[in-house]
């Protein structure tokens, strides 16, 4: 057996494959016999070869499946068993991973060079893999060669790609709407309303509102981007939550007065200090209280409560924001922290919402290694809780 053509194996095998094949070369005489024969019995060299194949597959960091000459599975490493619990040794690959593209690639790999395909599975969950199918022995192409299938998970990359695509589409749509309005107002001012002072003042007011909406959206987009860049770095500056919550509530008093809403801040005696970034925590509670004002009932009493949390290991504080407004149906609650997700898009825009507030809250709380819980019922209001660490 030679080492020529080693590069046809999956790039993830790397030096590990080199070491394994060097070991095989020392143990096994030149052979292209079927792995089925090796497994069922044979010479000492063949048995050593079969054992080396198993060790080789088990050492790979990604899922690996070994096939014999009849495309029957003769071994799966631990990662493969974890990713494909329904796949077992001794069964034809065609009966377990039912992908015509994979079967075609297996046949092509027996007759020519290694094959690489994208494998998409929908059961039990939707997953994607980059599958590389190659003869274990580079010189053993043909019907008698053992094949190794290595699978690199692409699921997370696909998920992120989908999120990016949706994010760009949604952001473009959200920005296009006020831009279109601005262009329309400008055209009107340059045309029919050019000499109409009343119309001009009215349209300038509307234009200012649309410009403010765009500015708020851009600020939220930049804030979200900034938080994501630092997502894995937990802030550790001491923050006293009592004064912070008072400051947030005072900053929103004018907005609350527009709907005759009362902000009831309930603080314990003494300081409650957590580790965090004060500006980011300000943004969290500003978003939560502002949402409660927007979607609570007119004349509502919004309860903002700080509780020293002594019942959970590692946590120092629980902050809850409770309104008594329209509430949200249960099926919407898990999606409220998605970017641009709105239960009622038209109502949200009228209330000057960008659809990014709770997404920002979630990312900041996650960065602080905290917990976010949202409970809501139609007609009864919404309760949002934030747990923060010491």
List keywords for this structure.
390 residues, alpha+beta, Beta-Lactamase, Helix Hairpins, Heat Shock Protein 90, 3 domains, 5-stranded antiparallel β-sheet, 5-stranded mixed β-sheet, 46% helix, elongated, disordered N terminus
Give the C-level CATH assignment of the largest domain. Answer: Alpha Beta
Largest sheet: 5 strands, antiparallel
How many β-strand stretches?
Answer: 12
**CATH H level, superfamily name of the largest domain:** Histidine kinase-like ATPase, C-terminal domain
SSE sequence, one letter per element: HHHEEHHHEEEHHEHHEEHEEHHEE
Average pLDDT number: 81
Task: Tell me the structural class.
Answer: alpha+beta
Q: How would the global form be characterised?
A: elongated
N→C terminal distance? 61 Å
Percent of sequence in beta strands: 15-25%
What low-confidence regions span 5 or more consecutive residues with pLDDT below 50? 1-41
Order of strands, widest sheet: 2-1-5-4-3
Number of domains: 3
Helix content: 40-55%
Note the topology.
Elements: H1 14-27, H2 35-40, H3 44-58, E1 64-67, E2 73-76, H4 78-83, H5 93-96, H6 100-111, E3 115-121, E4 127-135, E5 147-153, H7 155-190, H8 197-229, E6 237-240, H9 241-251, H10 253-258, E7 262-266, E8 273-276, H11 278-295, E9 301-308, E10 315-322, H12 345-350, H13 357-367, E11 371-377, E12 381-389
What does this structure look like?
The chain is built from 13 helices and twelve strands. It is of the alpha+beta class. It has three domains: 6-153, PAS domain (Beta-Lactamase), CATH 3.30.450.20; 155-229, Signal transduction histidine kinase, dimerisation/phosphotransfer (DHp) domain (Helix Hairpins, Orthogonal Bundle), CATH 1.10.287; 233-390, Heat Shock Protein 90 (2-Layer Sandwich). The strands form three sheets. Strands 2-1-5-4-3 form a five-stranded antiparallel sheet, sandwiched between helices. It has a five-stranded mixed sheet with strand order 7-9-10-12-11. It has a two-stranded antiparallel sheet with strand order 6-8. The longest helix is centred in the middle third of the chain and has 36 residues, at 155-190. The radius of gyration is 31 Å and the shape is elongated. The model is unreliable at 1-41 (pLDDT under 50).
């Amino acid at each position: 057996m030679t080492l020529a053509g080693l590069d046809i194996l999956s790039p993830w095998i790397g030096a590990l494959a080199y070491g394994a094949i060097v070991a095989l070369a020392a143990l096994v005489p030149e052979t292209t016999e079927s792995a089925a024969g090796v497994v069922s019995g044979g010479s000492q060299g063949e048995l050593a070869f079969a054992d080396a194949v198993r060790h080789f597959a088990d050492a790979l960091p990604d899922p690996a499946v070994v096939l014999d000459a009849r495309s029957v599975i003769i071994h799966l490493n631990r990662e493969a068993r974890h990713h494909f619990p329904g796949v077992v040794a001794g069964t034809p690959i065609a009966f377990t991973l039912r992908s015509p593209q994979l079967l075609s690639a297996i046949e092509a790999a027996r007759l020519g060079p290694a094959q690489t395909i994208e494998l998409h599975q929908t059961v039990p969950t939707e997953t994607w893999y980059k599958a590389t199918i190659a003869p274990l022995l580079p010189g053993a192409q043909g019907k008698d060669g053992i094949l190794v299938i290595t699978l690199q998970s692409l699921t997370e990359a696909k998920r992120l790609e989908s999120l990016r695509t949706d994010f760009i589409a949604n952001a473009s749509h959200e920005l296009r709407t006020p831009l279109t309005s601005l262009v329309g107002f400008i055209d009107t001012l340059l045309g029919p309303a050019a000499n109409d002072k009343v119309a001009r003042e009215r349209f300038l007011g509307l234009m200012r509102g649309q410009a403010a909406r765009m500015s708020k959206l851009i600020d939220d987009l930049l804030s979200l981007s900034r938080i994501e860049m630092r997502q894995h770095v937990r802030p550790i500056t001491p923050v006293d939550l009592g004064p912070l919550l008072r400051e947030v509530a005072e900053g929103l008093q004018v907005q609350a007065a527009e709907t005759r809403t009362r902000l009831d801040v309930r603080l314990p005696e003494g300081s409650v200090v957590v580790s965090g970034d004060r500006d980011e925590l300000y943004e969290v509670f500003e978003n939560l209280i502002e949402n409660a004002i927007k979607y609570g009932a007119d004349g509502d009493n919004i309860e903002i409560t700080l509780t020293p949390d002594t019942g959970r290991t590692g946590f120092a504080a629980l902050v809850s924001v409770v309104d008594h407004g329209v509430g949200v149906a249960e099926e919407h609650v898990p999606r409220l922290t998605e970017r641009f997700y709105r239960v009622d898009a038209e109502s949200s825009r009228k209330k000057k919402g960008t659809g990014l507030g709770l997404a920002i809250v979630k990312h900041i709380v996650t960065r602080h290694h905290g917990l976010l819980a949202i409970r809501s019922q139609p007609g009864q209001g919404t309760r949002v809780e934030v747990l923060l660490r010491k």
